[in-house]
Design a protein that fits this description.
- The chain has 347 residues and is of the alpha+beta class.
- It folds into 3 domains: 100 residues, Rossmann fold; 173 residues, ATP-grasp fold, B domain (D-amino Acid Aminotransferase, Chain A, domain 1, 2-Layer Sandwich); 51 residues, no CATH class.
- It is built from 10 helices and 15 strands.
- The strands form 4 sheets. The protein has a 4-stranded parallel beta sheet with strand order 3-2-1-4, with helices on both faces.
- The termini are far apart.
Length: 347
């Protein structure tokens, strides 16, 4: 691993498999990965890795507070949904506040519940597809049956009529909601806000292909309507740090927001390639953690960047330490470099 950067540290929670994102943070600040799973691969991209209690354990927040003191942490950034509300409340602790880049706890709680998200968006005058609870009247079919609490596109089903909708709402065996099936392309907007709730940038992307709720292929697009929608959402919610807004552009009703994740989205590496030098979201978070005020620069990014994601792996020894051995290196053929015109003419 490269030398530890000087200055403020960043604490990332629930890092899971987000190796690329942790790696970028580690380029700009001492990075501490906190995850209760000893095999979470992304922790090995950090300078320090620490096991912490599960997020619902009373000792979770105190453990994070201890890590903040130990390493001089200036930003706590969650990489999962599970502790967003907890961190939202902990950042307002009057005696020992965590420097968490998250919205207030009530907003985090509302956006974790997809039906409450719909109601919240309606109250704020933001576009959301027609959504009801099972048993309530539906204007039209088809509809999507979704768990109110869930991630990774788990247990989401398409119902063509009332009979299917009733069956599927019972089949998933958890509280559900019924939402109009949007007809049109789907987009994600990767947004970043400062600690005052100002939107700094919005980088929209198409969703060419998704698996398990995460986009694995897509293209960054400079779409003014999407950038404006992303800005309106994060500023209305008072977001701090990253937020990913998902929406469809329906043929009849126009844009409709189907999900709001007040954290880095599953395909956030897309914005890392599209951001201009010095303006990746991890780098901006580090700069804000150091006390720097970042000016909004919405729309300033590399347009038409396409990404396609793949899996990689690490080998660990008996003590769960990386061996540094890679059996599949380099990860592919070298990129061909076109020959100079003079050389091509001589051949």
């Amino acid at each position: 691993m490269a030398a530890t950067p000087a200055g403020v540290a960043v604490l990332l929670t629930g890092v899971g498999k987000r190796y690329a994102l942790v790696s970028v943070f580690a380029q700009h600040a001492t990075t501490v990965a906190a995850d209760p799973n000893p095999l979470a691969p992304a922790q090995y991209a950090a300078h320090e890795r620490r096991a912490v209690p599960p997020f619902d354990d009373p000792g979770y927040v105190p453990a994070l507070q201890e890590l903040c003191e130990e390493f001089g942490v200036g930003a706590v950034v969650p990489l999962t949904d599970l502790d967003l509300e907890i961190l939202g409340h902990a950042r307002n602790d009057p005696t020992h506040p965590l420097p968490a880049f998250v919205p207030d706890g009530d907003i985090a709680r509302a956006t974790f519940d997809k039906y409450e998200t719909h109601l919240l968006l309606q109250r704020l005058g933001l576009p959301s597809p027609p959504t009801v609870l099972p048993g309530e009247p539906v204007d039209s079919y088809p509809v999507m049956i979704k768990p109110r609490w869930g991630s990774g596109a788990r247990s989401i089903h398409l119902a063509q009529n009332a009979r299917e909708a009733e069956f599927l709402a019972e089949y998933i065996r958890e509280p559900a909601m019924v939402q109009r099936a949007m007809q049109g392309p789907e987009f994600s907007m990767d947004c970043l806000s400062d600690l005052e709730g100002r939107c700094l940038n919005v980088i929209p992307r198409t969703m060419i292909e998704s698996r398990g709720g995460e986009s694995i292929k897509g293209t960054v697009i400079a779409d003014e309507e999407l950038m404006d929608l992303g800005r309106r959402v994060v500023e209305a919610l008072g977001c701090r740090g990253p937020c990913t807004v998902q929406a469809f552009r329906d043929q009849e009703i126009g844009l409709g927001i189907t999900d709001v994740n007040t954290r880095f989205g599953g395909a956030c590496p897309a914005h890392l390639y599209a951001a201009l030098p010095g303006r990746t979201y991890p780098e901006l978070i580090v700069r804000m953690a150091r006390g720097e005020r970042i000016e909004p620069h919405i729309g300033e990014f590399r347009d038409r960047v396409t990404f396609t994601r793949y899996y990689w792996q690490l080998e660990l020894d008996a003590d769960l330490r990386p061996t540094g051995r890679d059996l599949i290196s380099p990860p592919g053929p070298p990129i061909p470099v076109p020959a100079p015109a003079s050389a091509a003419a001589d051949s």
